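ESCALATION

Customer reports they have been waiting on this structure for their group meeting. Please prioritize. Original submission:
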Amino acid sequence: MKLLFERSRTGRAMNLLPDCDVPEVSFDESLLRSSAPRLPELSEVDLDRHYTALSKETYGVNSGFYPLGSCTMKYNPRVNEAMASLPGFTELHPLQDPATTQGALELLHTAGKYICEITGMDDMTFQPAAGAHGEYTGLLLIRRYHQLRGDLEKRTKILVPDSAHGTNPASAVMAGFTVVSVPSNAEGGVDLDALRAAAGEDTAGLMLTNPNTLGLFDPNILEITKIVHEAGGLCYYDGANLNAVMGHARPGDMGFDCVHVNLHKTFSTPHGGGGPGSGPVGCKAFLSDYLPSPQVREDNGVYSLYDPSESVGKVRSFQGNFLVVVRAMTYLFSLGGEGLTEASSTAVLNANYMMHRLSKSYEIAYPGICMHEFVMDLKKLKDETGISAMDVAKRLLDFGIHPPTMYFPLIVHEALMLEPTETESRETLDDACDLFLEIAKEARENPEILHSAPNTRTVGRPDEVSAARNPILRYPFE
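Update from on-call: job pushed to the front of the queue and completed.
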């Protein structure tokens, strides 16, 4: 497919801009370009066809099955977009007098109450712009807690399980802590003896998600949080996998002191390239005074903004990605409490159904009942056939399915991690399982077709080493 610059022809243009209806402003010569930017010159029809062709090459959860493990790529209902497009929301300005934005403030306040109820927290901020940003914000709360107690100098370490998301240790370092990795036990949960050995007077806190990235609910979760609390640390819940337990179990009841929630995972708002994320952070009451400012409060039906007394400050402008919260609230209103519980139950059912069917041809890294996702270990398949997890993932592209997460978590070396979510029908799951089983058969009977895959896409398999070491980031003008 040609780039716009390759389609460009000198002199071609489109006249789409209306005449200027505001006074023109002249800038100092030192601020102006010395030459015009090298922009492509095309007719409207060529530009339209280019972006139409690009859209056909784009794959998202609205296009087909997207079992990206640890990312919860569930369908985004159209009604969410309709609500987020209402003029009463889209035409607001964040610096308006709060008296004129009562509806928006009420929505934020209500969303906070709902998500606090779901997570077992007491207060909530919507400033963080994504999950990792929420992690960082939660760690700032933990840091402020120890700072005000006068023990921050000795509380320098954050405990992180070795099956954690990679953003956990990165966020801890950004917040000024040292990371201590805690190994997993044979069942895929936290090794309690290793945790006890790591926890001590230098422990600031623990970062953990439950169920974890192996798709397993840790049966020792109450003991885990107890160990950390007895050492004087706080417990942070990575809410990436909340979709598996919402309506059934709450992080706050497991002993966690603060939590971030991925609205773009759990509550059906756009994910990744599809739109801005949102990673609100909830906390127990004893941490409320440290939340980012400003916060929304209600007094006799009137909503206003205030600054918490010991706030960590702003982590983003205003109230974060507000229209993402509108989408999430639409989802909450649509499903209600019973619907959310059914959604998480169905997510777990779908994952176990797929795992059972695929276990006939693929080795499951941690057999038994999983939660919302499961991990296949292709090491045996690779040893027997030479076919890797990468080969299977690339072959799936030929059949129009987005591959699952590859080579994660790191403790499973030939990992494929699948999360089907609750929005997929049994027919979709069966079609996907049939393809996985067919590919496993190909691995033994026709491995070369997997080594060369994808064979039917616009772009074939690139030389990934060369692409990483010598990326082409600029168009080479002659």
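Sent to customer with the following note: The radius of gyration is 25 Å.
Escalation resolved.
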